[in-house]
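Minutes, project check-in
Item: structure for the 280-residue chain
Input as provided by the requester:
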Amino acid sequence: MNDPIIFLNNRYLAATQAAVSPFDPGFMYGDGVFETIRLYQGTPFMLDLHQQRLEQGLKLLNIPKPAMIDRLKDIIAQLGSRNHLQNTQGMSRIMISRGQKPANPTCVVQATALDMEAIKNRRQGMQAIILPWKRDAANPLLQIKSMNYLENIYGRKMANQQGADEGIFLNQNGELCEGTFSNLFLVSDNLIVTPPISAGLLPGITRGAIIDCCRLVGIDCREDRLTPADISQFQGGFLSSSLMELAPLKSLGTHHFIPDRVMDIHQRITYAYQQLRQSA
């Protein structure tokens, strides 16, 4: 693809022509929110839920809601068309920072093709380490998708340096929370357990959809507190995110899984998720 087209402050322009002030608080401090949305043939999936979370983040940070939020579907459609994404798998990233002037946030929307080879590799099994520092579950910023994302980036790089694909955070009580870019599910027989929001994690859009899918196919999915000592009680697990959907775990910390042992459950949830996507 040539220079991609993006949306910046009510204008469509080539990415190389786009500029944000170095004094924008989003650039200086990460003072803003963002969302990453999966596109199927150019159409955003679960856009309404991503939009709701975006607005909740803006409200928490006391950033005025820009008018463009109510036009997101049309903006993404325009970008999908201009970047020739109608017949491919893609992603859209929406970023809203405080901006230099009160009541004038900086708004950026991107739409690009998705690296399906990377997604395919993740779906064949992921390895995750447990990160060595602890989060404060009471931190209100964990409830939103803040542009201040350096802790997540640092944690993922640490995992990669140790030969893993993902790093899992612990809270101050030593409980499992979430990954740097994913939510965690552990599987035992016909039971799935995922950490509760109160443990200190982002309410993942795909996480919520998977919980609903489990109920639809008759799988008991519970939100419950988990510690590293609990991992050995489970036969397997998987990670979820909007872009990769579901990816099985090959290892978590020092515990190794055999993904085939829980493949039936994984396939049932994946099928239900695909049905959900096709009916959207």
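Outcome recorded: The chain has two domains: 5-114, 119-279.
No further action items on this chain.
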